[in-house]
Amino acid sequence: MKKLISLILAVMLLYAVVPAIAEAVPAHVLVVYFSHAGENYNVGVIEEGNTAKMGRIIAEQMNADVFELVPVVPYPQDYDSCLDVATREQQKDARPEYEGEIENWDQYDTVFIGYPIWWGKIPNIVYTFMEAYDFTGKTVVPFNTHEGSGQAHSQRDIEGKLTSAAVLKGLAVRGSKTQNDTEGTGADVANWLKGIGLAE
Ligand SMILES: Cc1cc2nc3c(=O)[nH]c(=O)nc-3n(C[C@H](O)[C@H](O)[C@H](O)COP(=O)(O)O)c2cc1C
């Protein structure tokens, strides 16, 4: 009887301690993204941006922390006005500010960077982020949404910008697919993560 009670107590202790240990281990993967909700090409007015949806899927599959680049000055909800603002930012090579900062940057060894393609390029606010942190020794993984341009030049632009990091092959998915087909996007992400050696 004593043995049985000891066994039950041991099992109860194990159940109490294991989750505490799991919670104490900090995530080493971070998903950072910029995404624009509101009116967008091919999807109408959306509550959650396409890249945000893709970022959430990646974070779930990688058990990662998430940091969204939320602009201090919001972009217009209206699509045409947003096109104009993006054009001006690119012409001026602007560095728009975003809210907050990433805590415990050093704990992350792998950083996913997500963005929509804007006029064939990475939105300027993502450059604000890339210039704010030291990427030495990190593994960087680009991902993006688009409506026809694929990755455009963004893979090479990130490789050229973050020369102290190892940049893995990114994934581009159509924004309308990430918005309307969560399962299909999830499968694309899973295959890609396997292909670049980040999942089994
Ligand atoms: C300012 C702006 C410029 C865009 N330029 C392009 C482009 O050059 N090529 C492309 O394929 N899609 C372009 N798009 C479409 C977006 O890349 C696409 O809708 C993306 O999924 C939006 O993601 P988000 O909802 O995360 O912001 C553009 C959209 C905006 C708002």
Ligand species: flavin mononucleotide
Based on secondary structure, the structural category is: alpha/beta
The total strand number stands at: 8
What overall geometry do the principal axes of the alpha carbons give? globular
Provide the CATH architecture.
Answer: 3-Layer(aba) Sandwich
What is the string of helix and strand elements?
HEEEHEHEHEHEEHH
**Number of structural domains:** 1
Radius of gyration, whole Å: 20 Å
Uncertain residue segments: none
CATH homologous superfamily caption: Flavodoxin domain
Strand content: 15-25%
The CATH class label is Alpha Beta
N- to C-terminal separation?
Answer: 45 Å
Main beta-sheet strand count, sense and barrel state: 6 strands, parallel
Mean pLDDT: 92
What's the topology here?
Blueprint lengths: L1 H23 L4 E5 L4 E3 L3 E3 L3 H13 L2 E4 L10 H14 L17 E7 L7 H7 L8 E8 L7 H8 L4 E2 L3 E4 H6 L1 H14 L5
Parallel strand pairs: 1-4, 1-5, 5-6, 6-7, 6-8
Antiparallel strand pairs: 2-3
Describe the protein in words.
- Helix 2 crosses helix 7.
- It is built from seven helices and eight strands.
- The longest helix is centred in the N-terminal third of the chain and has 23 residues.
- Helix content is about 40%, strand content about 20%.
- It has one domain: 3-Layer(aba) Sandwich (Rossmann fold), CATH 3.40.50.360.
- With about 200 residues, it is an alpha/beta fold.
- The structure holds flavin mononucleotide.
- The site of flavin mononucleotide has 22 residues, from helix 2, helix 3 and strand 6.
